[in-house]
Amino acid sequence: MNGIPHLSPTLFEWSYTSENVSLMPALISTLYMALLALLIAVPIGVSSAIYLVEYAKPGSRFVRAVRVTTETLQGIPSIIYGLFGMLFFTTVLGWGLSLLSGACTLAIMVLPVVMRTAEEALIAVPASYRAGGFALGAGYLRTIFRCVLPSALPGIVGGVLLALGRCVGEVAALLFTAGTIAQIPDFGGQGIFALFDSCRTLAVHMYVLASEGLHIDETYATAVVLLVLVTLLNVIANVAEKRLRVK
Predict the structure, then answer these.
(1) How far does the chain reach from its first CA to its final CA, in angstroms?
(2) How many domains does the chain have?
(3) Do 184 and 29 form a contact (C-beta atoms < 8 A)?
(4) What is the pLDDT of residues 178-232, one digit of tens each?
(5) Domain around 108
(6) Distance (Å, rounded) from C-alpha 242 to C-alpha 247?
(7) Which backbone phi and psi does 121 adopt, to 5 degrees?
(8) CATH of the domain at 28
(9) Distance, CA of 247 to CA of 244 (rounded, Å)
(10) How far apart are CA 209 and CA 213, in angstroms?
């Protein structure tokens, strides 16, 4: 509540200066970071879930090993992912503190969430749906994409939006991989090379302001915006899941 009185139009200006610690660059960078992370994690996670449920032998050692691994990865602290991203993406691959390094690190973090929720959604689809597709002469792949996936879509979407919420609220991993520079990656001027620009997300922006101790009012205001954003994502997730289940 302390941040609401300090919300002002100047906080949403496009440029960040020492006099005006605008949160707009961080807000735009948050959207870029989250969308890029999901573009990497969702195809891999959903494809892996389809293979485990539809193609792999049920109860095999491989399936058990993958499930144990994903459950273990879900419990690893985010700072460990950040250290891995710093060592591999920023140092070994030479990407430096950048949007791409941060997004790839986030993708690895949320991949177990996307994969497990998609797997559970696919398992929940009745076997009669698959049998009905085969009875109509559809091939295995066609049955999966026309019968199974549409039925599992609500659960998959819920998992994706859950992963999106984690991307938006992450701090520790991004401090080591994306940096803390308050700027908007210039895709208009640099094209794809803007992926190698350093940037800060809303959560990192709030952390930096709080640690500096010079803009406490703006820190509270940023917390309000972040809280509203996460709440909005949760509402969208619930509405989308309900509508998809109705369909």
Answers:
(1) 39
(2) 1
(3) yes
(4) 988 888 888 888 888 889 999 889 889 888 888 877 778 788 888 888 888 888 8
(5) 4-246
(6) 9
(7) -65, -40
(8) 1.10.3720.10
(9) 5
(10) 6
